[in-house]
Fold this protein.
Amino acid sequence: PVILLDVAGLRATRPERVLFDDVTFTLRTGDRLGVLGPNGTGKSTLLRVLSGVDEPEAGTRRTARDLRVAVLDQEPHLAPGSVRDAVGAAWQGEEVLDRLGMGPLLDADTATLSGGQAKRAALARTLVAECDLLVLDEPTNHLDIDAIAWLEDRLVRWRGGLVLVSHDRHVLERVCTRVLELDRGSVHLHEGYDAYLEDRTAREAAAEQAEATRRVLARRELEWLRRGAPARRRKPRARIESAAAVLDAPSVAAGPATLDLSDRARLHAGTPRLGDKVIELDGVGHRHGDGPWLFDGLDLLLDRRERLGVVGPNGGGKTTLLEILAGTIAPARGTVAVGPTVQIGVYRQHGPDLDRARRVRDVVTGGKGPIDGHTSS
């Protein structure tokens, strides 16, 4: 195999924190590297450095001579004109677009595409590019199940190098030969997704053990200080406060801190639940105007113990069905009955329209009080 990319000691920072430090690896033809980590840990930043778009703050990046890199950004840009022209590669581009559910939009103007459609068109453009190295930032976003399976097969057969950011564990497990984990400034390289799971489990177990030992020692010291004679207790106030702070601090083994939203969840709990029925659909069908029916004759009874998944191709009516369930739109025919006292919370495909002037904690709690717990940095 030919060495395509060799990086050593890459580093990137933001004010008051390190995104990643000492990223070091070699990528050869046939290597497929998955990059994973929580949001905000620098995955997209690392991809821009690896693809040569940005320079690292520290470290080196060396590539094969005349290395050709094709990049899919998280928010790609398409040239003005038709989707067909923006993707190029003639018949091959059309075939890939069709596989990604974009066949009916070949002649559509790129300016009219939704965010998901633009991402799929850009993915097609990247896949048909003549290149040695593919750099893909969350390529499975906005793909249906069939398109994801097709993409997995194509990437597994890819003979060049691949760097892939994804939150989809099935894609990481099936496609990637190695996994680079970014975790609160630390970097860990694993020989595949299974090795990542094993290594992370071992690290967390060791951290939990170290944390338990730290708390035991702090508790013992605090008890010893409080039992001491008055003469010995004149000056240990700082040590007492330090030991108490250890016991009050969040566990370092817990990873990124989370918000306790139990109070938020109880905001609407003043009225007791009446009955098990949440939603019942009877003969529900819908279409837009005089267009074809997206679905019809849907009968569904959902009770409070059930969790329903909705799958189907893009454009098949999944979002429309959810809007009907939420009561946002009425079905073209059929009836929707919502159980008494049922209150519906909705998270939409493109996220909520947030008030940018408000703080995150106020948006989350609805301004109804503090959040118990610790905010993540």
